[in-house]
Structures are given as C-alpha cells and as structure tokens.
Amino acid sequence: MTISDTRPDAGDRAAARRPSRLFRNLPSKIAMLPLIFTAVVVFLGGTIWTVVYSFTKSGLLPRLSWAGLDQYERLWSSRKWIVSIENLAIYGFFSLIGTLVIGFTLAALLDRKIRGEAVFRSIFLYPFALSFIVTGLVWQWILNPELGLQNVVREMGWTGFSFDPLNNPDIVMFGLLIAGLWQGTGLIMCIMLAGLRGIDEDIWKAARVDGIGTVKTYIRVIIPMMRPVFVTSLVLIGAGIVKLYDLVVAQTSGGPGISSEVPAKYVMTAMFGGQNLGQGFAASTMMLVMVVIILIPWAYLEFGGKKHG
Amino acid sequence: MKLRIKLLSATAICAATTAGAVDLEVMHWWTSGGEANAVAKFAEAWTATGNTWVDGAIAGGGDTARPVMVSRIIGGDPPAAFQFNHGRQAEELIEAGLLLDLTDVAEAEGWADIVNPSSLLDACTVDGRIYCAPVNIHSWQWMWLSNAAYENAGLAVPTTWTEFAESAPALQEAGLTPLAMGGQSWQQNGAFGVMALALAGEEAWLSVNRDKNAETVMGPEYTRVFEAFGAAREFSDGLNVQDWNQATAAVINDTAGAQIMGDWAQGEFAMAGEVAGEDYSCLPGLGEVAILDTGGDAFYFPKQDDPEIEAGQKELAAMLLSPEVQVSFNSAKGSLPVRGDVDLTSVNECTQKGLDLLANGNIVPNGESFLAPDTISQLNDLMTEFWNTPAMTAAEVQEQYSDIIASAE
C-alpha cells in the first residue's frame, strides 16, 4: 500500500525536477546523433532493405517485383551454395581452434621473458599488416607446385615429394586455412600477450609456492582468468571467418571447380557476375540468419547470464 | 597529397575545357599483352583528335570488371564510356535509362549499312534505339594448336576434334598436356559451348540457346557433346593455370598441344612473334562444323549532365567505327572488324579463314545474346564443377544442364 502511494509521488517529483528524460544530458545526446543515425539507417535500415529485396526478382538493379520464396528455393537447391556452407564450416572450425591455440602458444612463449621479444613480436604480427589479397597471392605462389614449396623440396633431393593443396579439391580448404592462419594469428597473439601481461605477478608466485607446473598453471589458472581476452579474440576470429572472401578470390577464385567457394563469394557472384541481386540478397540474408543463430545463444550466455548470477 | 591531386586534376580540367577538348574516362578489361596493345590504338586515335583518353583498365577479366563498372554507374559516378560484351549484359541499364542514346550518331554515320553482320547492331538496339557502338567481332569457335608440340611427339597436327581426341593419349605419353585449360569457370563453360556448336550442330545449338528447349539438351546430339567434354577432362591434367592467356602461353611454349579459346587468343600468338600456319594452327569450329558465333565487344556511354562530355562521347562513338581505327585496332587484337568494307592490314591464314566464313554467312549470333547473365553464371558453375570433379558423370551434368535451360528466361 505504502509502495503504491509513494511511487507516483516520487515520479511526480522527478518529473517536476526533470521535465523529460529525453532532454537529460542533451549535449552528449546531440553528440551521439550521428552514431545513432548510422546504426539505425545504415545498419538496421540496410539490413531490412536487403531482406525485403531478397523476396523480389531484382536483377542488375533493385526492383520491387515480388517473387515470394523463389530465390530461397533456388538458393538451397544450388550445389554451389551447399558446398559454400560446408567449406565455411570446415574453415571456421579449424580457423577458430588453430588461431586460438597457435595465438595463445606463441603469446605464452613470448611471455617467458625471452631475449629479442620485440623482434619476434614484430615478425609474428607483420603478416597482419598485409591485406588478404596480398596474403592470398603470396600463398598462391608458395603453394604453386612449379614455383613454390613442392619445387623447393624436390630440388633438395626428395623428388617424390608432392604438396599441391590448391589444385586438389579434397584439401583445397586447408590451403586457404594455412594462409588464413599465417595472416591472422599474429593479431590474436598480441591480444593474448596483452592479456598475459595483465595477470598479476603474485599469481605466478603463488603457483610456484604451491609447486604447480608452468603448463598446468597456464591451463588451470591463467586461461580461466583471461576469459575477457578470449571473448574479444573469439569475436575477431568469428567476424573474419564469416566475411572470408578476398583470400579465396586471390588464392583459388573458388576453384578447382567449385570446391573452395564460400558464402560471401556466392553473394558477390550472384549479385554482380550473374546480375541477379535477388539471389545475392537471399544468400546474404541466410548468412545473417546463420550468424544470428550462433550469436544469440552465445550472447545470452555471455551477457544475459551475468545479470541473473 | 590528396589535395594536391585534386588541385592538379582541377587545373587539368580547366585546361582541357579552355582548349575545347574533353577528358573521357574509358573503362575496359583489356589487360593481356595483345589486348593492351590493341586498346592503345584507340587511345592514340583519340589523342590525335586533341582530346584526352583516360585509361580505366581493370585487370581480371569481365567478371571482375563488370561489377566495378555497374557499381560506378549506379553509384552516380559513371565513366564516360565502358566496354561490355554484346548481348544482354547491359539490358537493364538501358531499361533504367542510364545509358546515352546513340541513334543520331548511328544515323549520321550510316551504321545500319556498314555494320556486318547486322546482328551486332541488333544486339545494341532496344525499342528501335541504338545504345552501343560495336567495335569488333569475336568468335569463341576456335581451337589453337601448337605445331611444334605435335612434331616433337611425332604426330601429325590434327584437323578435327575427333583426330585431336584420338591423338591425345600419344601426346600425354610424350609428356605434354594435350589440352590447355584455364581454371576460371567461364573458360570451361565457353569451351563446352564451342564443343556444343561444333559437335551437335547449328540446329541443336540454336534450339538450346535461342529457344531454351530443354528436351534438346537430353537429345542424342547433346549427349555426344557431354560425353566428349567429359572425356576431355583428363586431357588437361598436368597444367594448372588460372588465366586464359597463361593457358595460351602453354600452347605458345609448346608444352601443351591445343587450347579451345576465342580468336582473342591470336593476339597472344602475334605478340609472341608466332606465325599462323608455321608455328601454330587454327581450327574454326574445331574442324567439325565451320560456323562462327559472332559476339564481340561494344562500348556503351553512360548519360552525363555535361553537354560537352556528351558531345565528346558521341565523337568517340563515331571514331570507334571509323575505317582507320577499325583496321588498326582489329589488326592488333586479332579480332575481325565490324565493317564489311575495310581490309585488314595484315591478314594471316587464321584471320582469313574467319573472314571467309563471315563473308559466306556461316555465322550464328553468340550465346551471350540469347542467355541472360544469370543463366550463364549458373552454367559456368555447373561446367566448372563437372570439369574438376572426375566422379561426376556426363549423364548427371546433362540432367542439371537441362534444368537450368528449362528455367532460363
């Protein structure tokens, strides 16, 4: 009873002091306007526009002539799309595990206060300064059987050596993966290293006093403490996986055949090569759906869980 | 730095306008040696008129270049002129009213009388108005063979596809790749198109491409084509290249026996100093059915607000079809001129074969003028999968091919 009495009263008083919540901190809200505008119009508006037009027969130019679910039916009956999804799953799984493991291992090694740390750090981070197009071309040459690795090993005497992933449909995704890891692990290593440096020295001292081994300390104590760093890394790696496109274009252009196609490339080819915007929009909508399916449960666990706990 | 460039270009524009000349940015995808040499002829002729040619070359072929051009046109920053292939690629841009109507230029220059075959001008015409300037005739229907490769293997140079297929194992035993094939999907689908016209004949080919008759795809003529294409897959083992000119280079270096590629490949042979008939041979229609498909390149001119630029665009359009430019450009590119009334300066054996077929009317329009880019891109995907998946059978592909044709617009 008392509660229901005081509440409107408190509200009235608040209203008398501050006429509207809308005008609270007005300058900072004005400063936020461009960002709000960008978020609503560019991100949300663009997404809605794309989804709407994915139900149309848009060709080279967007047109509002409805096609129902035709574009989606065609998409899911296309072998190329199925292959693209499978490839992304393979690349995504190995890229995620590989980047985290290699990135953390390198960071842990550098964290052992070795000599010339700055040099190694620069060397490992350097590939990140290159674009995916350059990375793709470099690795295309390295993996080229006549010019690159295979040739070098053969000239050293192992004439039977054969390593030609880019021309073998079964393992071509691993050829892409090598280049992707080479490019991406450096950044993750740096983030991990920053995380490791943030760990209090006393933790290490305590572990030593308790007689816990170095490896065990890392796995049991340090890694759980670095959870926020791992989340950051995960988001960065995940974004890199979904937008995988330029590496494929530079290294294999989807070949041999369609064996290294990826969803983003499917979208680009449909929209611009095939002059079929509707089909490209349908494919990009499916990409969004896939991301959302993975993201929502994770975001719920990560951010929603804390409030309750 | 950026400011300086802006200032420089601003002064350049001022200087150009005061001189009464215009800068026209021309976008195209002619970047291989022979092609770049050919496009330089256009630039020279245009510069000679006192105007400026701003070269907007995009490497990577039409599939890479077209999206860039289209996005610039839709994005409101169109080039003054751009290259497309004849056919349905620009259809929607014309319908949306984004391209300049060239009908008055065409009438003044009498294009209707000089352009041969007239189907080239038809491909530029929408609702009786002309929107593009055809510059050359290209045909896919060629196979290029290295004479030295066959000599080294102790074989006679084949004169038909059947002979070629029979001699292929012997060539492989000699350590050579019988058929050079680039890894890009358009090359594999293109080669299939050549084999379809050559092995299934004109009637079946038109039925599939023009009338979109899916039953013909399942018929006996096309069955033969799918089987021949399936058998040809292993002929290309041992050569892994992407671009078409790298595949042509393998024929030029005599490490590969042959390549199925349009007549633009001849520009590469010419650049390498090879002589038709001595160093290399050519088989129009694979030596089976000598019919050429007549596609080619055309220039389109996006609408611009500036009347001065528009006048320049029309001047350029007229120049592209003028006799001198037609001769110098097509001689360099290895293509045939769109005018029936000019003689090429240096006609080699292969070009002569093409000119004879053209004069006799042994021609069909090209596949791109019948099929929408969407359909072509689906066929590209299918044929490249077939080419690279040894486990895929001809019958499976035939089925899927007929589905695509049945749903084509």
UniProtKB/TrEMBL annotation, chain B:
Chain segments annotated as transmembrane: none
SUPFAM superfamilies in the cross-refs: Periplasmic binding protein-like II (SSF53850)
One Pfam entry name: SBP_bac_1
Signal peptide boundaries: 1-21
Localisation: Periplasm
Predominant subcellular localization, coarse grouping: periplasm
Keyword Signal: yes
Known role: Part of a binding-protein-dependent transport system for a sugar.
Similarity comment text for this entry: Belongs to the bacterial solute-binding protein 1 family.
Descriptive protein name: Probable sugar-binding periplasmic protein
Source organism of this protein record: Loktanella gaetbuli
